[in-house]
Amino acid sequence: MNQAEKETYLREYSILKNEGKPFFPYAVAKDSIMAAIVIFVIMFLSLMFGAELGPKADPTTTTYVPRPDWYFFFLFEVLRVMKNVPVFTPMATIGVPTICMILLFLLPFYDRSPERRIERRPVALSAAIFTIAAMAYLTYSGANTGSPNSVDMKPPANLTAAQKQTFTAGALVVGQSGCLACHVIGSNGNNGPGPPLTKIGSKLPPAAIASTLVNPTAPMPSFKSLAQQTPQKFQNLVGFLSLLQ
């Protein structure tokens, strides 16, 4: 701010100070009304829609993957997008929030313009619109992304109706069994410690897949109990994996 801008600012400030209204009760009344409106909207949304409740907590499960609250969905989505590139994972979990906090903390130091009218601040306006739009899009995407325990894959178009039914049922078993914690299937799951299963059907016949599930190598758990207790689920699992080609 140069001397001329400083003098103009002080002159306008003096005029506004002499002609303006006191903080109490005028500004306090406006703040109180706005606070009451916000509280009413939150209460209305809570009563109409309520909180999203998941299944009853099961301390014995090893397949449940928690999801964050809605105001962290944008960061959750960034992490989901970047997880396939391990080198970017620290940037999504630590880098992005840290950089944003630093920029907000340093805002008074690098934003030295005396202009406060938004129409005369195109850079600040564009940055704010971009940030809000990006966070809104990522929040929406994060809210509508399937659970990490679900396989987001459509059956191949060349399958028969029976094969598509097996594919869908087997994908559900994969999600329920926690396979995605160690394996990647398409864009789903984790890269390790187990091998990728995206093309497993073209590498092993169904009999070999079933044998591996029943008698796996450590640390993979055995699916022998699944084959004995619910053989249909086991067959759906084998069928799904054999169709991954």
Write structural notes for this entry.
It is a single chain. The protein is mostly helical. Helices cover 59% and strands 2% of the residues. The chain folds into three domains: 14-50; 68-146, Helix Hairpins, CATH 1.10.287; 161-242, Cytochrome Bc1 Complex, Chain D, domain 2, CATH 1.10.760. It is built from eleven helices and two strands, in the order αααααααββαααα. The chain has a two-stranded antiparallel sheet. β1 (184-185) and β2 form a beta hairpin. α3 packs across α6. It is elongated, with a radius of gyration of 28 Å.
Brief overview:
With 245 residues, this protein is an all-alpha fold. The protein folds into three domains: 14-50; 68-146, Helix Hairpins, CATH 1.10.287; 161-242, Cytochrome Bc1 Complex, Chain D, domain 2 (Orthogonal Bundle). 59% of the residues lie in helices and 2% in strands.
The gyration radius over C-alpha positions equals: 28 Å
- The fold-level CATH name of the largest domain is Cytochrome Bc1 Complex, Chain D, domain 2
CATH architecture heading of the largest domain: Orthogonal Bundle
Strand content: under 5%
Number of domains: 3
Q: In CATH, what is the class of the largest domain?
A: Mainly Alpha
Mean pLDDT: 83
Would you count the extended β strands for me?
Answer: 2
Task: Report low-confidence residues grouped into runs of 5 or more.
Answer: none
Query: What count of helical segments does DSSP give?
Result: 11
Describe the global form. Answer: elongated
Helical residues, percent: 55-70%
Described by strand count, sense and barrel closure, the largest sheet is: 2 strands, antiparallel
Distance between the termini: 65 Å
The helix-strand sequence is: HHHHHHHEEHHHH
User: Order of strands in the sheet with the most strands?
Assistant: 1-2
From the helix content, strand content and strand pairing, which structural class follows? Answer: mainly alpha
